[in-house]
Model the fold of this input.
Amino acid sequence: MILELYRLLKEIAENEYKEIIEDTGVIFSYSGRARKLRIKLIDATFIDIWYSLEGEYSFHWEQTSRGMIYRHDNAPDK
Done:
């Protein structure tokens, strides 16, 4: 179920934002479970999208260029 969601989001991102996307792919755990969708942008940043079966989600945007790391994660701290 989560893998199908990631594939749908991947397709939407590639169709709607193709001019700013360099690459997309699902990242899998060692056990073969789909963990998150990673979208690499043309400015050397990336976005990770994570969903759980319980309906929790997180969007993580990271930039590591110019010797600095900038991250934005919308997931609340627990």
Observations:
- The two ends are 25 Å apart (CA to CA).
- The chain is about 20% helix and 45% strand.
- The mean pLDDT is 88.
- The beta strands are 21-28, 34-41, 45-51, 57-63, 70-73.
